[in-house]
Amino acid sequence: MESVPSAQPNGETAEDHGEHKPQEDIEQGRKTAVHRREDEEIPRIFVSWSLNPTTHSYSNDVAPTLSLALTSHADRPLTIYNDSVLPRHMLVEGKFVIFDVTSNVEVPQRKSRLCFFEPPSKVQVPLREHLFHTLYPEVPVVFETAFGRATGVDGLEPEHHYRLGPGQGWGYVRWWEYGEKEEVMNPPSGKLDGRRIAYRHSKNPHQGIYLETGNMSAIDFWCTEA
Questions:
Q1: CA angle centred on 68, ends 134 and 173, rounded to 5°
Q2: 180, 170, 90: which is closest to 141 by C-alpha?
Q3: pLDDT digits (tens, 9 = 90+) for 161-203
């Protein structure tokens, strides 16, 4: 499981501008946003998700598991550098929307910004191999985390019915390359540069991919005392 770097509480994230109707956001889901030029052939990656179990008992010390599955519709394997579509980070940043169906109100969540600063030029930047994942055509790759207070979920009450929505302001893979992980990380020109991958985004080999989230239906879940 991916560890969470230091987070700095700052109230709302940069994506939180203006007011919205939480119930509409959740039931309609996040609209598919694929911003690319017509002449570019950018692979399509769809996102699905699940919460298991959907009934959480406060007498159970084990939190439900939130899973995000990425499925590539490319005609060949591709490898992504995934430092942003990680459910643990996304919960900490308050990317998802929780609506209390019983009380008919949105449940406020803590929102922290995860900051990654480029170190001085003399400091070696590791490649962070664990963030490279190969997506084979039509084969889901799943990322998961606990769904509870330890990962930023707050304000839930027993005997209430809730609805989890995908929210906005996420779903972008900025670095990717065709091929399997080993060949992508060891190209003929030599091993990849960790600093360039993590921070020098203008050097990316391709335009980034906006994940297709239009099929992410809201998830209903319940909290109980027993």
A1: 50
A2: 180
A3: 999 999 887 899 989 999 999 999 888 877 777 777 776 666 7
Alpha carbons 123 and 195: distance in angstroms, whole number: 10
Taking alpha carbons only, the member of 161, 169, 18 closest to residue 94 is: 169
* 127 neighbors 197 (Cβ within 8 angstroms): yes
Q: Which two three-digit tokens encode residue 80?
A: 């992504």
DSSP letters, 124-157, are PPP--GGGEEEE-BT--EEEEEE-SGGGT-----
Residue 66: exposed, middle, or buried by beta-carbon count in 10 A (0-12, 13-18, 19+)?
Answer: buried
pTM for the full predicted model: 0.76
Token pair for residue 101? 């169906």
With tokens 């989230």, the residue in question is 213
The CA distance from 171 to 45, in Å, is 10
Q: Report the C-alpha gap between 166 and 27 in whole angstroms.
A: 10
φ, ψ of residue 175 in degrees (nearest 5): -125, 130
